[in-house]
Design goal:
Largest sheet: 2 strands, parallel
Distance between the termini: 36 Å
Radius of gyration: 24 Å
Oligomer: single chain
Order of helices and strands: HEHEHEEHHH
Length: 177
């Protein structure tokens, strides 16, 4: 399977609403033309990619999907969501991020749990995950495909299994884990 990123007014990046004029209905005409030329029985013989989906209206996205868009790039939106999650964390914890010791709860109180990257990176990731969910809703793909969970102890990379290393590895090998 291959896909085509057909242009219909879309552009990469982010623009003020109204500065980009999308015409997703053109995609339906592309599909009809391809169906005729290919002699396809499918009404949508082309797998289309929507490059530059940031800032598109819900109606434009739905029209694009209706006309065969199978994938929409949302990199700009997810980048912003990640940053916005970090920005919100900094705003909420600002007074706890001014030094290692000392905050509104006391001059000798530690702040480690606030500036630990595992905490603020996770907040940014959670914001990005939420934004991905928004796009999944807009593209009507949420809950459409069941999650695939690999078997315990397996790696889904060409059946690759690392060699057991050290005492723990030897125990795992002996137990066939």
């Amino acid at each position: 399977m291959f896909s085509i990123a057909a242009a219909f007014g879309n552009v990469h990046g982010v623009y003020k609403p109204g500065n980009v004029t999308l015409q997703p209905e053109r995609l339906g005409k592309h599909q009809a033309y391809a169906k005729e030329k290919l002699g396809s029985s499918s009404d949508k013989p082309i797998f289309l990619v929507m490059h530059g989906g940031s800032g598109s209206t819900d109606e434009e996205i739905q029209t694009a999907v209706k006309n065969g868009v199978m994938k929409m790039n949302i990199d700009t939106d997810t980048q912003w969501a990640y940053w916005d999650g970090l920005r919100a964390f900094e705003k909420e914890k600002h007074d706890y991020l001014q030094g290692q010791i000392g905050n509104p709860t006391g001059p000798d109180k530690p702040n480690k749990k606030n500036y630990d990257p595992r905490v603020w990176v996770r907040k940014a990731e959670e914001a990005m995950i939420e934004r991905c969910g928004v796009s999944m809703d807009k593209l009507s793909s949420k809950d459409k495909y069941p999650a695939k969970v690999p078997e315990p102890g397996s790696l889904p990379v060409f059946g690759f299994r690392p060699k057991p290393v050290g005492p723990l590895g030897a125990v795992k090998a002996a137990l066939h884990l």
